[in-house]
Amino acid sequence: MGARGPHGSHRRSREPYQALLAVPLGLIVVVTVGDILAPPEVHLGPFLAAAPAITASFAGPRTTGCVGAVAVLAQAVIAIVRTSLTDLNHSFQLTALVLISVFVTLFAHRRERHEKELMQLRSVAEAAQQVVLRPLPRRIGPLRIASVYLAAEAEAQIGGDLFAAARAGQGTRFIVGDVRGKGLEAIGDAALLLGAFRSAAHRQADLAALVAYLEGTVSSDLDDPGAALSGPGSPSEAFITAAILDIPDDTPVLRLINCGHPPPLLLHRGQVISLDVDDPAPPLGLTEFTASPFAAKTFPFEPGDTLLLYTDGVIEARDGSGTFYPLAQRLSAVPEGEPQGLLRHLQEDLLAYTPGGHLGDDAAMVAIERQSRG
Questions:
Q1: Cα diameter, the chain
Q2: Element (H, E) at 259
Q3: Are strands 363-370 and 240-248 parallel, antiparallel or unpaired?
Q4: Nearest alpha carbon to residue 64 among 52, 75, 74, 47
Q5: What residues form DSSP beta bridges with 173?
């Protein structure tokens, strides 16, 4: 029974293609019969050029070439029946049809090659992101966790949105961030930061020391002379916004250092509270412009509360009128439930909010619920 599923799916996937192919073939039949039966002064043959042109819009070069050959053959049949192949009018029609068929076949070849390259790029993008963004566990200590990554799908331009979690003694540390820029360079910067976070999260006892270590890692990479060869984005322009949190197991609080990132939202007894820090740090890679040390701020995080971490791709999504997505307002209307259900609801609502369900930028969200221990 399981072996029949793929065959049925393959057969269904070919049905729309066969229906489309029937259009140019039917056109050839109609034009051929109509031209043969038409009065001598009426010539419908030029309409045969539409058949390979239509085919090139959805089929590959082989199919397009075959339809073009059938159209040329039909034009030859018309010429033989009505006058002869050497008739000047039909000779010009045949020549023009052959040239058009060759042209649209080459067009179909270039389009098919571009689609294959785009598919390969997307495959590389997905593989790279799967390596960088490891799935978060559903549960860590007293925390229930869910995460989602929404790709903008704009010509395989992968974004640098990132998130990770790591155990640190009797607590859990989280990071959510966004690398400036897109493409493989952004993925490389995200991988660098996540690798440093996973390596040091359990070794740095103090959250400020951890963030200082991450800043040093990012800054040292940006100071690498090889980074100057990376192209349009110069090292001085590169940075990473990030929110780094420490959530102890036995104390109903969380500690937060925000490095230029959108503030997390806390869902507490039906109210949405924005966790704004008094003295936010600059994005990682830009701390040379400030002498302020990293300082963590403590917020209540009680059993039953849910914390939402997100990237700016969520709050910068726009509807048809250009209005930004009101995340805090939509979060307050989400029915209470587990983190998976909350993110599922927000994801569906976000995609329904944007025209055609297309985001202008990649977006990531992480929901964390604290449960009672015992």
A1: 95
A2: strand 253-259
A3: unpaired
A4: 52
A5: 166, 246
DSSP 88-124: HHHHHHHHHHHHHHHHHHHHHHHHHHHHHHHHHHHHH
| pLDDT at residue 159 in the model | 65
Give the 3-state DSSP-derived string for 301-340, with helices as H, strands as E and coil as C: CCCCCEEEEECHHHHCCECCCCCECCHHHHHHCCCCCCHH
Cross-strand pairs, 253: 300
How do residues 67-104 score in pLDDT, each as one tens digit? 999 999 999 999 898 888 778 888 888 999 999 999 99
CA distance 181 to 189: 10
Which residue stretches of the chain are H helix? 4-37, 50-56, 61-82, 88-132, 183-200, 207-222, 312-315, 327-332, 339-353
Asked if 56 contacts 40 with a C-beta cutoff of 8 angstroms, the reply is no
Taken in order 353, 355, 358, 361, is the CA torsion positive or negative? negative
DSSP H/E element including 161: strand 159-167
Residues in Cβ contact with 79 at an 8 Å cutoff, skipping those fewer than 6 apart: 45, 85, 87, 90, 91, 93, 94
What are the residues whose beta carbons fall under 8 Å from the beta carbon of 361, sequence distance 6 or more? 152, 159, 312, 313, 316, 317
Burial class (CB in 10 A: 0-12, 13-18, 19+), 55: buried
Per residue in 109-152, pLDDT (tens digit) is 998 998 888 787 777 766 766 667 788 999 999 999 999 988 77
Give the Cα separation of 131 and 133 in Å (integer): 6
Enter the tokens of residue 115.
């689609």
